[in-house]
Amino acid sequence: MTERFPGYDVLAKRDTPSWNDASRRVIDHRLALEDEPRFLTQDEWRLLVALCDRIVPQPPHRPRIPVAVLIDRKLQQDQGDGYRQASMPPLRQAWRQGLHALNEEARLRFGGNFVELAPGQQDALLELLARDQVRSEAWQGLGAKSFFKGRALHDIGSSYYAFPESWNQIGFGGPASPRGYVRMDFNRRDPWEAVESKHV
Amino acid sequence: MSEIVPQVPRARDGRAPDVFHVGGWVPMREYADDDEVDFAIIGTGAGGGTLACRLSEAGFSVVALDVGPYWRPLEDFASDEHEQFKLYWRDERIVDGTDALQLGRNNSGQSVGGSMVHFAMVSLRFRPEWFKARSQLGYGHDWPVDWREMWRYYGEVEEALKIAGPVRYPWGPHRPRYPYRAHELNAAARVLARGSEALGIKWAPTPLATLSAPRGDAHPCVYRGFCIAGCSTNAKQSALTTWIPRALAAGAEIRDLAMVGRIELGNSGRVTGLHYHREGRWRFQRARHVVVAGYSIETPRLLLNSACPRFPDGLANSSGLVGHNLMAHSNQGVYGVMEDEIRWYKGPPSLAITEHWNYTDEGKDFHGGYSYMSQGPLPVEWVGTMTGNRGLWGEALQREMQKYIHQAGLKIVGETQARDENRVRLADEKDRFGLPVAHVTFSYGDNDHRLIAHAKRFMRDSLAAAGARDIWAEESETAHLMGTCRMGDDPSTSVTNADGRSWDIPNLWICDGSLFPTSGGVNPSLTIQALACRAADRIKLLAKRGEL
């Protein structure tokens, strides 16, 4: 696919009035996170990375976004969202059980670990989760659809779009303080915003 | 995950943060726990922050406590959705029901200044008839206050927040022009305007609590678009930047990072003060009056957690209504793709509004009304809508995200009916203070569904008329909270009187959105602040008469 915003890099604005000190500190810290698990085991981590690749497939020829790391750190800090479905276990337990059950389901359906399946098989399996059509007993007390939609899609989508590279891909302006925007009407663009390619 | 969060209280040692200056301080009067203050207020948002200001300006001694941190937005707020999750209430709560609430961004904060610190600044008056919904419109409950009185207080709040809005507002009885000029529209707002004009209904620039001209140490809005992630330039007029600085100047004490766990009932049948946790230990603040202003979940939670032998079902609960009739606004969005570049991340998210269906009753197959506004979600919120509402993932998700700068949307703030089964109760689970957490149940009723269906049809037509394609609508979204401690005229069918004074305990008051008997089709913050101003004036009057 042709890039929609060729040459656009949110990080190029880091030392401009678009970024205040707090934004620099927060984004610098995020980009410096070591792309390794602190909470999950190595097996869980590989499984999570494979899952992220199917939920938010990354465009080729673009820098890779370390999606899984934000989820691992969220688990490490046990930082919930402030609400939890009564039918769902707490954050850490939900992720641990969900990853385990995903792999059990993969073995049951395709006779192999999730990370070893072809992308098409992985997607087929995830479709089954989304429709709650699972066979493994490992989903008990969690629910495949609840985990898939309420935990996996929620946390993975949110983590992907927390990284500046994702903002480059969709043309979002990124940090904007103290300088915000001036041109707000249809088809108007400030010089510090992304230019959309006309060849998409 | 947050990088910048105060770990110890800032408001202490005779000073509080000056929100207008990096590293700045302002003097703060302090009270000892043993001082019997006139009013101890729990919560510092639209209800508690406003009341703390008005009562301290009236000469009462006031201590206001909040479990949230005391931010200095200029130095503490990043332009980053993830970092700013720190403004939301993130301690665990249990939710269920067929439309279980997602708590946080849309309804629940944890800051000095409350959820106003991350509110979308939409500042609307109730339609006059809504205050007598039962007797004039045939549904819900009457409020124990008169609309003309409320409209006077709306005027006071609009002035206090320098609301930016149009010279002439197209709906309802005459109102004065807004204190500050209306903001210019972004493209997302123009889509609403275009659709409204095509369908022959009125629209207006949304009255917003963000500055369109300088005010004191605060600059005008720079249209950075991160409003619901907190305003890092102080253009936003929240309790944190308006009522609370005034309260401090008038001698109130604010206690940040202070969690109230229980209100103490004395032998006399009056409350004597409150137990609160701060700096690692439990303490007790004496008070002549206690005001609960924790909003529709924490207020009933605290009253229920304060159960005692004399009131085994919780304080102020002889009606059995504490925690019941929780309302949220229906908040379904309709989205489409425009040929034009919209770039809806610029400017406040809801710069244009129509209240047509709040003021028009013809052609409805439901009770109540709704407004709808233009939208501008940032990427993390937007992907949450894509995954949560449409269930998109994989290549399909990424393809949709690619259309980000061409998206436009309309979203309702829809009235829901108060229903007994929607409620807040205590769970077995405990929080970090050892207190039972809230269990929150919410489901839409039949009338709510009919209202939502009507709104979705109308907004689809409007977006299509404005030139959008690939139009789709959200299923189960909500915003705001109201109810759980209804005010009224009858102690058997309400928790407090019109002043927020509980029927059961004369020196226990409530001052927040939990008082709402009905929800109306507009964002609640202006009405909460108006109620707080009214309560303050009533308290002054009662004090003069010796009736406190």
Describe the structure in your own words.
- The complex is a heterodimer of chains A (200) and B (548).
- Chain A is an all-alpha fold and 200 residues long.
- Chain A contains seven helices and one strand, in the order αααβαααα.
- Chain A has helices spanning 21-31, 42-55, 67-76, 91-110, 119-130, 144-160, 164-170, and one strand at 84-85.
- With 548 residues, chain B is α/β, with parallel strands linked by helices.
- Chain B has a single domain (15-544), classed as FAD/NAD(P)-binding domain.
- In chain B, the strands form five sheets. In chain B, strands 3, 4, 7, 8, 9, 10 and 20 form a seven-stranded mixed beta sheet that branches. Chain B has a six-stranded antiparallel beta sheet with strand order 6-13-14-15-12-18. A three-stranded mixed beta sheet of chain B has the order 5-17-16, covered by helices on one side.
- Chain B starts with 14 loop residues before the first strand and ends with a helix.
- Chains A and B meet through helix 1, helix 3, strand 1, helix 5 and helix 6 of A and helix 2, strand 5, helix 9 and helix 10 of B.
- Strand 1 of chain A pairs parallel with strand 5 (94-96) of chain B, so a sheet runs across the interface.
Quick overview of this protein structure:
Chain A is mainly alpha-helical and 200 residues long. Chain A is built from seven helices and one strand; from the N terminus they run αααβαααα. Chain B has 548 residues and is of the alpha/beta class.
Question: Features of this protein?
Answer:
heterodimer; A: 200 residues; mainly alpha; B: 548 residues; alpha/beta; FAD/NAD(P)-binding domain; 7-stranded mixed beta sheet; 6-stranded antiparallel beta sheet; 12 helices; 20 strands; globular
